Amino acid sequence: MFLKIRSKAVGETSEFKITCPDDNETEVEVELNLDEVQVVIPREHKKIVKINDQVKIEMRYPALDAFVDRNMKDEPDIDDVFDLVADCIDKVYDGDETYESFTKKEAKDFLGEMNNEQFQSVQAFFETLPKLSHTLEIENPKTGVKSEVVLEGLASFFA
User: For residues 141 and 139, what is the distance between their CA atoms, to the nearest angstrom?
Assistant: First the structure.
């Protein structure tokens, strides 16, 4: 959605400087039609995360401001990670019970009680989030080598 807004606001094409992967130093300018960029949703992405036989968590996507705030830090710490994950818990299913209302502290406490394997299941939600992706073919003017370069993630298209 943000890329579509950008394309309408500043034009459908954008220029990028790409470093050629064959020598990792030569930069080429590439023009890209932003309407060609697609959202890729990995097959393994699931919004409902199974914690154990009884408990499942329904996740929601991070709000842009929360995502940007945490990604602007050089090194997010464990509290930043737990805050983001807690913000993204939408519902907790425990057998026949559904919990839709809980404080951030309760969500963080719940996360803190998980074992490593359970937390990795939650982490998989973030690792497989839908993302913008576009493959460009570039040619290094110095070497004549053609390469494919993949632009991925929102930051790649707003740099």
Answer: 6
Its pTM stands at: 0.73
- Residue 81 tokens, joined: 């990670």
Take residue 10 and report the two structure tokens written for it: 């500043």
- Integer Cα distance of 137 and 156 in angstroms: 16
Give CA–CA dist 4/100, Å, rounded.
32
Give per-residue pLDDT as tens, 2-26: 666 666 666 678 888 999 999 999 9
Give yes or no for a contact between 148 and 136, defined as CB atoms under 8 angstroms apart.
yes
Q: How many residues does the chain have?
A: 159
Give the CA distances from residue 49 to residues 59, 91, 111, 118, in Å, rounded to whole numbers and listed in that order: 7, 11, 13, 9
pLDDT digits (tens, 9 = 90+) for 68-82: 665 555 666 778 888
**Contacts of 65-71 spanning 24+ positions with Cβ under 8 A:** 71/155
CB distance 26 to 140 below 8 Å: yes
- 51 neighbors 121 (Cβ within 8 angstroms): yes
Q: Where are the domains of the chain?
A: 2-41+131-158, 48-127
